[in-house]
Amino acid sequence: MGDMFSRFNFGELMGFLSVGGGLFVAVIAIVGNLWADVRKSELSAALKHDMLDRGLSADEIMTVLNAGTKRARKAACESHALSA
Q: What is the domain partition of the chain in residue ranges?
């Protein structure tokens, strides 16, 4: 392996390492993002399953899942404006 790198001069080696390192960082970022999405889906499914086991209705589950989202704030503002 060292014999392979000894054929490159310093500039070629640094170019190879910078391009290779950049690609490595990009691949790690993509894999990390995909892993985070999968983990969020797993946690969401576990939460929904737990709420179903506790006997919550579908409407109650949607209320819990939408709490703190932009959709929930928008709906609260609309209902507040209609009641005023």
A: 56-84
